[in-house]
């Protein structure tokens, strides 16, 4: 029998993205679940527009591969990954609103408030956020109840006032009073980094990792979360709207402070290299088993959109 050629990183990223998208499509179908009364057609269509419009699904990928590092894979892990993507997609829908970043394009398609209307976009985001916790808490996510509870808690902390939502609030404040370097790092660690850190920690939790290994994955997630934002800042400075599938140059136009803007492109690229080196070093105890996560760290640094 001929041996199968191992998938490249990009192929594996696409495979996981496809699996997450298929599950989201199933979760976002018309059938009311137990305890639900009905699923309004227009609201459901807006949720699907915001969640099923492509994308790399990097956060679910990190969760799936972090779990696989500890021997966990299958439907339960995929459901947690899909729940995380629901939170991420909710954040994008709300970030794009006129009251926030006021964007017309997301992944090359009209944003939800443009395709539908602002009120429907707000409700679609609210519903995706709520549904994320439904998915994890459901017994269909076949992890121990204590593990599901811990994952729900960690996701709430990553998404809420002390994480992503709080980071968005700081980002709005930064338009009026640009923070210094420490403030920028805090803002970005909350707005962008918190869900990336959660992805790695949740994978470790789903895999039953020891506290020491869990903390190592948390540190890995923090490093690549900072790297992701640095890469994003560089793309905002240098990439075209066509490449990104959304407007670029908006940070500078809005007067938002970024590390790339504060220190310059060369400094930012050196910092990015240092963060990826740090991330790779954190994975050393896991040997070859962590090669995919190492590739993921490098992917974060070299992404073009």
Automatic annotation (TrEMBL):
Keywords from UniProt, A to Z, are: Isoprene biosynthesis, Magnesium, Metal-binding, Transferase
Query: Is this entry keyworded Metal-binding?
Result: yes
Q: Which SUPFAM superfamilies match?
A: Terpenoid synthases
Q: Name one GO molecular function term.
A: metal ion binding
Q: Which domain of life is it from?
A: Bacteria
CC per GO annotation: cytoplasm
Entry keyword Transport: no
For biological process, the GO terms are: terpenoid biosynthetic process
Q: Which residues form the signal peptide?
A: none
For this protein, the parts annotated as crossing the membrane are: none
InterPro entries per record:
Isoprenoid_synthase_dom_sf (IPR008949), Polyprenyl_synt (IPR000092), Polyprenyl_synt_CS (IPR033749), Prenyl_diphosphate_synthase (IPR053378)
What Pfam families has UniProt attached to this entry?
A: polyprenyl_synt
The UniProt similarity line reads: Belongs to the FPP/GGPP synthase family.
Q: Matching PANTHER family, A to Z?
A: FARNESYL DIPHOSPHATE SYNTHASE
| Protein name in UniProt | Probable farnesyl diphosphate synthase
Q: Which organism is it from?
A: Chelativorans petroleitrophicus
